[in-house]
Write a structure and sequence with these properties.
This protein is α+β, with helices and mostly antiparallel strands. It contains 15 helices and 23 strands. The mean pLDDT is 93. The structure holds iron/sulfur cluster (SF4).
Length: 466
Amino acid sequence: MGGYFGVVSKGDCVADLFYGTDYHSHLGTRRGGLAVHDGNRCARFIHDITNAQFRSKFEQDVLKLQGRMGIGVISDTDDQPLIIGSHLGTYAIVTVGRIANQAELVKQAYGLRSAHFSEMSGGEVNPTELVSLFINQGGTFAEGIQIAQQAIAGSCSMLLLTGTGVYAARDKLGRTPIILGRKDGAYAATLETCAFPNLGYETVRDLGPGEIVRLTPEGVEVVALPGHRCQTCAFLWVYYGYPASTYEGVNAEDTRYRCGAALARQDTTAVDMVAGIPDSGTGHAMGYAQEKGVPFRRPFVKYTPTWSRSFMPQDQSTRDLVARMKIIPIRELIQGRRLLFCEDSIVRGTQLRETVRRIFDYGATEVHMRPACPPLIFGCKYLNFSRSKSELDLAGRRAIKELEGQDGVPPAEYARPDSPQCRAMVERIRHRLGLTTLQYQRLDDLVESIGLPKERLCTYCWDGRE
Ligand code: SF4
């Protein structure tokens, strides 16, 4: 994934940019970057944040930055922001999304004989540089951004820092949000609205799908109108969006309470307590416990002083180790009890299996799992959401392969919660995870919990509908 924050101000913008970008740290682990325009030129810093938090890496840099406009990024892919010299003027750019047709676009770009890439990493083109190449084909920034948006399959939201303001452009089907905020003498564009309250911004509105605006200290100019079709990623509310954030007018934490309550209404299992797999299962579990009238407890607590980041390191064995070290079980709450856990989702299930084993080792008599979304059976094509290389990494997909005897596009029945095929898939996953029971959220309940019409949400990873 990744996240961005942009700001224009009548005064210096650097503090807002620094903290606003930092509030996106849960969305990526690879690179952080800031670019500031001081009226004459862009200054930029990029750091590897794989082993250190954004703030600690940038706190010395911000002392050297000065300016009234800036953009920042937490990136899960390559170096950003890039500074691009073009016939449109020099600008800095950050992007979030996934260019599904990158190879084809690179080929197309090489067809323009003068095109070249200077940000190659491991033989791969930097996707943000690729986007800039298409932007540079426009007569204006707005036209260039539209050319890029049309060319890209997948999704790409972006911020551009130019001499005349910050351009904010949401991907053409609105999978990732861009939300505008305002305070006295300043405007900001963010992916996470949790960046706003402590910096004094009020939310103005969400950009529509494909909409492009230019922010200046004087106001917001719409330079391209939104399209009609919007498919915001439903996973934002379930899992990776920050609880304090609101997208399309719907708060993430509030949605998680409703998701938990919906799970509880479908469930007749008798248990002694409800808990969340920390942190993102907590809101769902609180909603479940409240609806059911069962005590909410924390039989696992997270060691937050040093393990505060939500996303994990890149390689699997380090991730497993970190996952284990972060979460501490409390025997007094586990031994001899029937525990029901809410979890945001089950992706691979590897860590969850280990967690379940530990809970039984600590003396639980039953362990029930209630994921807040349906089984994932399609890999995300639109965001760099998971690091999995193959759809077969998904617990649901692996179960289908075992049941069908081959991999391929899963028959539609697996996405129907009442079908025998879906039940058989869930039973396989339950068995593999060593759970007493496993009951997933139904997609219609998830959509109702979010509260937006289904056609305004992307639900591809659950039902394969584009
Ligand atoms: S496929 Fe899933 S993770 Fe990807 S955008 Fe759609 S809902 Fe979000």
